[in-house]
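Weekly modeling sync, notes
Attendees: AB, CL, MP (scribe)

Item 1: holo prediction request
CL wants a bound-state model with nickel (II) ion before deciding which constructs to order. AB pointed out that an apo prediction alone won't tell us much about the pocket. Agreed to run with the ligand included and paste results into these notes for async review.

Input as submitted:
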Amino acid sequence: MGRFSLSNIYMDKICIAEKLGLFADHWNPRIVAELNGQHVKLAKFKGEFVWHKHDDEDELFYVLEGSFCMQFRDKNVALNKGDMLVVPRGVEHRPVAKEEVSVMLFEPAATVNTGNAGGELTREKLDTI
Ligand code: NI
């Protein structure tokens, strides 16, 4: 008889393609896993997001499909499929996607997508898929 452990819920593989097929809206991240107080999220971007920063959290962006540009106040970084970028805490940034892009995010569970900016694109409570 094995001991029941909550961690068992993460011992099946997660199919990213399947998860991406479960939603179609933009700028509305979904949680697909949690570890060490961090969330692994999937999101689809299209268009321009808002300028914002996160005072206490670094954010990781990993491009799964498509491409987008991460704008900083002093430069733009073009990101294509397979590229990854870490935005340090406190640094203003704005993702812009000419076409739809699918992105994996890795960041502390407390991170709010619009950081200090707030506004209508803010998603405080994310669905887990
Ligand atoms: Ni951000």
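Recorded for review: The domain at 16-108 is CATH 2.60.120.10 (Jelly Rolls).
Action items: CL to compare against the apo run; MP to circulate these notes.
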